[in-house]
Amino acid sequence: MKRKVIIDCDPGIDDALALILAINSPELDILGITIVSGNVNGKKGEENAKKVLKLMGREDIDVYIGEEIPLVRKLITAEDTHGGDGLGESNYPKVGGQVLYGGVDFILEKAKSEEISIIALGPLTNIATALNRDEESFNKIKEIVSMGGAFKSHGNCSQVAEFNYWVDPDAVKEVFDKSNVKFTMVGLDVTREIVLTPNYIELIKQIGGDVAEFIVSITRFYVDFHWEQERTLGCVINDPLAVAYFIDNSFCKGFMTYLDIVTDGIAIGQTLVDVGDFYRKAPNGLVLTDVDSKKFIRFFLGRIFKDNIKDIEKVINNNKYGM
Ligand code: RIB
Ligand code: CA
Questions:
Q1: Can you tell me where the transmembrane regions are (predicted)?
Q2: pTM of the predicted model as reported, rounded to 2 decimal places
Q3: Domain layout of the chain by residue ranges
Q4: Measured from the CB, is residue 39 less than 6 Å from ligand 1?
């Protein structure tokens, strides 16, 4: 049985990789893509989602722009990380076509009529707005898997804050405090382990084809950013892990706990994972803490390059490359 899903995202380089993985995953029936401002503003995110759908021959999937500014904070985007076009300055041509708005209403309409889940890859502005607009319909959603936050891992926007939750901490607070929907936090503790290293990028390049070319092209800028920012060789691809975990929970381990978030001051965006049960509150989320990164990368590459699985296995199993 395919699982009906809406992917809420802010494409964004790793969002684009996550969309490619999701489109190549037969377990998913992607009902639509909703766009939230984050890495780039909503309009640019919509254009980028359409570029991926065109590349993958899936322009049948509709893209809806949702909320374009956070609930309270001023919007802060991340072109320094994802490039001015949001796809690593790859400057793929715009696809055009009708621009659809109403991302939040799309989520609520589907929640009312079908059993859906949400894979959230950006700030939670659309999710919180849907919750506040129609709580009854929202709570019919089966589960939300959200890339965001951090437990023990340091932040990527400050010492303590991860970008998605830092952009709109008030939206996260609404979801943590009011939602009754099963919630999994795919935070930096696990996504930081997923690095597309130069070896993997070269493997993708050698596999070749339009999709490989797209991935190599959009990640170049991201690799340079990672080197400049943190002397990482390659690039951390956060969002695809949320898709993989939604499909198969065995990629990660975690625990149920009470979650809260700091919404102002120096630690704004910090997720509070109450592992010590200090607040004595009921668990409201599952926090992921461990990931089988090799298993993930095999899954990721194998799903996207189905015809090249033998080559992928041969290269990854060859200890010379340390992959
Ligand atoms: O902190 C990483 C997250 O913020 C990823 O989803 C990335 O795409 C950005 O949205
Ligand atoms: Ca994202």
A1: none
A2: 0.98
A3: 3-196+236-291
A4: yes
